[in-house]
Design goal:
Strand content of chain A: 25-35%
Number of strands of chain A: 15
CATH architecture of the largest domain in chain A: 3-Layer(aba) Sandwich
Number of domains of chain A: 2
CATH class of the largest domain in chain A: Alpha Beta
Helix content of chain A: 25-40%
CATH superfamily of the largest domain in chain A: NAD(P)-binding Rossmann-like Domain
Structural class of chain A: alpha/beta
Shape of chain A: globular
Radius of gyration of chain A: 20 Å
Oligomer: homodimer
Number of helices of chain A: 10
Order of helices and strands of chain A: EEEHEEEEHEHEHEHEHEHHEHEHE
């Protein structure tokens, strides 16, 4: 076995505000053969996700910052081409975190052999992967969604949001979604939402009140928050008693260089006896395999529809794909085919 | 039975910002004899509480606004002097809501005969009443306080806060309290807090970090919030993983005429997988009797110490007492002896 040529993205400086092209560099290098306990993987598809912006910055969040001058990380699906470890044979389809490159040498402790090999590899990064499982955990374990509940989800055309819409409908909820373009709003409706709006069309609080009226409801039982900011304040305004807010992400502030003020109406959480709870998937990994099995069945049945944006350009396009995802140009799960 | 002379406070206009003397009027009137199904009560002591400010304003909160040109309401303890209902005989000590007056005619459905008649009547408005039960519900049912937890409570010399400090210590927590004067801070320490600070002494975030260091801790497992605003943001800053925030009150904003921005760091609720939950005692009335029995025992044993401020002036002093409580001049439960 010999080194194979591979290109990879390295972090050169920590972005402040919107990331710039000078913060990263695409480097031509070689991927060495696997040492004992590792496998070499030809990467097929990688994920770009909002949380990566936080890890590029220097501040400690829930995950360590990416080191400077090293290749960045990303959930990636690939096929094992060389193995120095019998438990992961050549030909296995695996999920690992050493993305932003064409070939990876992955320790077996850092990769997982994927079931459901028949599905589109991108599905393992979307519905079966972090976004799908995150949607499920937020709905069931954090928001305790019940049939008959009225749910609002922001970024409803996004990777998590498009799954929340579809799952919440299956669970018997009335679903309202917001998104950032007429095309996305149309998609959200196609996915089954009872009402959807483009948040550019006015103050979110007004758009949300109109949407509630359209579905014959006066308040929200659940808000699945992917954006924070104005959306969060608008949702708090119309909570029903004992409502639950699942805090999944705050894309409205990831790119903000200065702290943004929070909602001015938190007192309403008391009046409404409402709960707001943040969560991370890493606390819920026990759910992953059972959930993936159930979701794979729904996908094969056509009951849940994968929604992906595959950004062009292969590995060279990954940085533009990341920034496009941050700017909202993706629909559903944003991925980059690497081979 | 004939009418008895009685003075009562009527709401004349809805306060905007800080309440003014012209918003209310003390009226000389007569309290009629009890009609069937009611009792007449000679009121001994009434409570003044922050939530009353909200009910004086016109905005619908969790409770209806007080009607204009009628006597206001307040939890009140008194002795039945005339009864037109055998189930509540003359001489009964009762709790009812028709305060802000010397004598009340109370429907039996709106009063409760009090056990623990041996204790100071004000205790029924404090440790055994709404503040004490609220402290207990927030600690046990909302924050799920456990032995070994590090807890921070704001308004720690207040009616709820002084009870939270004492109960949390009994439950095995490390307790940090904030209050608004050196005298109050001294009281909080006397009540058993491991650290306490005066929030006027600097940014709350700095004072809280110092207090944490003083008790050998790096973060909070529980924040019992009575004030909102800067305190809430400072607490969110130093949450431990899986921390819980019990939102009990937001005294920092009750008097604010304009909405105050919320904490700028809500993203930390995600990183820390933290929960923030508002609650109202009315959802937890099932706890009341059992809790009162337990607390009455602790009071008789000296294990928990009642902390009251009895404002002077009898009924005529009630308005000044209310405003003094809002301004923070009370320690512990603010009450007004009426007779």
């Amino acid at each position: 076995m010999r080194p194979v040529p591979s290109r990879e993205w390295r972090l050169r400086s920590r972005p402040v505000g919107r990331p710039r092209d000078s913060d990263v560099e695409l480097v031509d290098t070689f991927c060495p053969p696997p040492a004992p306990g590792t496998v070499r993987v030809a990467n097929q598809v990688m994920s770009v996700e909002p949380y990566m912006r936080g890890r590029m910055g220097g501040e400690a969040t829930y995950a360590d910052p990416y080191p400077l001058d090293e290749p960045m990380l990303a959930p990636t699906v690939g096929r094992v081409t060389d193995s120095a470890e019998p438990s992961v044979p050549i030909g296995s389809l695996v999920l690992h975190d050493l993305g932003w490159r064409e070939h990876s040498v992955v320790p077996v402790s850092g990769c997982r052999i994927l079931e459901h090999d028949d599905l589109d590899p991108a599905t393992h990064l979307g519905l079966l992967g972090i976004p799908g499982t995150t949607a499920w955990v937020g709905l069931t374990r954090i928001a305790h969604l019940e049939a008959g509940d009225v749910l609002f989800v922001s970024s409803a055309a996004g990777a998590v949001g498009s799954t929340v819409v579809q799952m919440a409908k299956r669970m018997g909820a009335t679903v309202i979604g917001s998104a950032g373009s007429p095309e996305k709003v149309a998609l959200v409706r196609e996915l089954g939402a009872d009402a959807a709006f483009d948040y550019h069309d006015g103050p979110v609080k007004d758009l949300l009140r109109t949407a509630l009226a359209d579905v014959g409801a006066t308040g929200l039982d659940v808000y699945y928050d992917n954006v924070g900011g104005e959306h969060l304040e608008a949702a708090i305004r119309v909570l029903n008693d004992h409502a639950r807010i699942a805090l999944c992400g705050m894309s409205s502030i990831y790119n903000a260089a200065a702290p943004q003020p929070g909602p001015a109406n938190l007192l309403k959480l008391i009046w409404r006896r409402a709960r707001m709870e943040g969560f991370l998937l890493e606390d819920h990994l026990d759910a992953r395999e059972d959930f993936a099995r159930q979701m794979a069945g729904w996908i094969r049945d056509g009951a849940v529809r994968p929604v992906h944006t595959d950004h062009p350009g292969r590995v060279a396009g990954a940085w533009a794909a990341f920034n496009g995802m941050l700017d909202g140009s993706s629909v559903g799960k944003a991925v980059v085919s690497l081979a």
